[in-house]
Amino acid sequence: MNGFVLEVGALIIVMFCTCQAASKLHPLVLVPGNGGNQIQARLTSDYKPSSLICKRWYPTSKDKNGWFRHVTTYMAPLVESLEGIGYVAGDSLFGAPYDFRYGLAAEGHPSHVGSKFLQDLKALVEKASTCNGGKPVILLSHSLGGLFVLQLLNRNPLSWRKKFIQHFVALSAPWGGTVEQMLTFASGNTLGVPLVDPLIVRQEQRSSESNLWLLPSSKIFGCQNPLVITPNATYSAADIPKFLYDIGFPQGVHPFETRILPLMEELIAPEVPVTCIIGSGVRTTEALFYKTSSFDERPDVVYGAGDGTVNMVSLLALESLWADKKNQSLNVISIDDVSHKSILKDHIALERIIGQISEINSQIRSKVM
Known about the structure:
Elements: E1 4-10, E2 28-31, E3 37-43, H1 52-56, E4 67-68, H2 76-84, E5 93-95, H3 112-131, E6 137-142, H4 144-154, H5 158-164, E7 165-171, H6 180-187, H7 198-206, H8 209-213, H9 218-221, E8 228-229, E9 234-235, H10 240-246, H11 253-264, E10 274-280, E11 284-289, E12 300-304, H12 312-315, H13 317-321, E13 330-336, H14 347-362
Parallel strand pairs: 2-5, 2-6, 6-7, 7-10, 8-11, 10-13
Antiparallel strand pairs: 1-3, 3-4, 8-9, 11-12
């Protein structure tokens, strides 16, 4: 796009360790969801605002080279709460931002950006542990970050996990994807941003590989349950390739089938303690009904259980998938009337999260040799 330069930037604590005084707490690494990573942008002289709204919103706060970003609080309340129990940024508390446009790929397929992130995250975990007297690390993720963390764990040997990971706490993780993601691909999704035409952002959203990773999994949603219904066809989670083709995104079919679909099958129990903290009681997109054959039109939405973004069947997926795993500790904490985003700032939710982190820190674990 002319006149527009992009660079991925971090929202919070960067991926480094100052290695100062060791904390009595287990070091903690935050892995954000899509919304916790920001793109820095620079508008060149070639940029011409497409509307009065764009001209009015032209950023006034830029560095000397013209770079700017939209700053949000996102994880700030959670970070402040962690600091309230003794965590110190750069000493015992670290953040692991990533380029949210890229996902991962199944074994045998190149995934340079996503794989590099996992390498950096692994190095950060090891460094954080070393900086804190060899204490294993608590990994605390939100949303998509949980999928990255589970891949990190399962792509490293059990001996490494036992040595470096104390606990994995996943907030609002979309283990089996979401029905809302089908709306994003079909008709665009403004994600609540006002005065934006969803069709304008649709192409950009289709270009993000990580969005393919969030489409509903037939392993979780089943092969018969209708998720999108049109006058000409009905699509379940097993029909995603046909769905992508029919909405006018055939170029998404091959990467989905070869790179993403195998990842959906890899919800493997990592054999380290896992706690899922989820919101519930918020109406969530469960099915889409299109009155015409055009996906440019907005569908009627049928709502069901979930956190407003992720369906309950996806939030609870690990309970059924890991039910017979004797070596896997899994705890699920559900908080009523808390949404996918508000779990990071709701007072009650923060109390539950911090309470869980405090409990983990109070546990005594034998040293793994």
